[in-house]
């Protein structure tokens, strides 16, 4: 049996969520709270498997309650249940330790699937939220790639070859053998590139090589 704490300051919302959860015989609502402080107190008392928290609640909002639960009742998995899909809310919710993010406007089946998923140790996002998170991560990756390519652009063809091989994990001796040059030449190229790109070591250079597309993942 998955034991659930439900926290929302709107009584009718709590009743609707409770009714949906009641359709699954493996889920039991063990406590209900009308604000964040009450949710934390009841979670300490009942030790539920999952806490369903609304983001906007009086006294202490769901984000603050999630952070407090992470510190005091870490075994309780937190799922944020809200009408707000703003990126800032998503980022703050995940940063506060929440393992799930569900929209009240979503399919009731998402609620049941989300509760079961986080109770089993997984994470769960509403499909619409998941798409936004993936789009954001993809945008960040594209941004890193563009920045890396701009930094690598001034390098000569030979320097780019050396950087690519550093990114592939080859040693100076292995790079020298691959390029048919002496090891001292490779060392000189690496030192010159590190200085020009203002990097501290080969690890940073390897990361830049991957971000810039010189090395396949």
From TrEMBL:
GO molecular function: DNA binding
Matches recorded under Pfam families: GerE, Response_reg
Start and end residues of each HTH luxR-type domain: 148-213
4-aspartylphosphate: residues carrying this PTM: 54
SUPFAM superfamilies named among the record's database cross-references: C-terminal effector domain of the bipartite response regulators, CheY-like
Keyword flag Transcription regulation: yes
UniProt KW Electron transport keyword: no
Domain Response regulatory positions: 3-119
Any Gene Ontology biological process: regulation of DNA-templated transcription
Keyword annotations from UniProtKB, A to Z: DNA-binding, Phosphoprotein, Transcription, Transcription regulation
PANTHER family: TRANSCRIPTIONAL REGULATORY PROTEIN NARL-RELATED, TWO-COMPONENT RESPONSE REGULATOR
Protein name (database record): DNA-binding response regulator
Organism of origin: Streptomyces purpureus
């Amino acid at each position: 049996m998955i034991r659930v704490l439900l926290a929302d300051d709107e009584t009718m919302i709590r009743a609707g969520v409770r009714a949906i959860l009641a359709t699954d015989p493996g889920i039991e609502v063990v406590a209900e709270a009308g604000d964040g402080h009450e949710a934390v107190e009841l979670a300490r008392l009942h030790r539920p498997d999952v806490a369903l928290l609304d983001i906007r609640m009086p006294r202490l909002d769901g984000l603050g309650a999630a952070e407090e639960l992470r510190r005091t009742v870490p075994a309780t998995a937190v799922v944020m249940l809200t009408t707000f899909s703003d990126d800032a809310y998503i980022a703050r919710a995940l940063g506060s330790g929440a393992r799930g993010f569900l929209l009240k406007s979503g399919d009731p089946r998402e609620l049941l699937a989300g509760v079961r998923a986080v109770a089993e140790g997984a994470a769960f996002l509403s499909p619409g939220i998941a798409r936004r998170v993936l789009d954001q991560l993809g945008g960040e990756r594209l941004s890193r790639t563009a920045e890396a390519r701009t930094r690598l652009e001034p390098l000569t063809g030979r320097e780019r070859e050396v950087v690519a091989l550093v990114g592939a994990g080859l040693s100076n001796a292995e790079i020298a053998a691959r390029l048919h040059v002496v090891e001292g030449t490779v060392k000189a190229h690496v030192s010159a590139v590190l200085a020009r790109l203002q990097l501290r070591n080969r690890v940073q250079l390897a990361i830049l090589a991957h971000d810039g597309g010189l090395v396949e993942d």
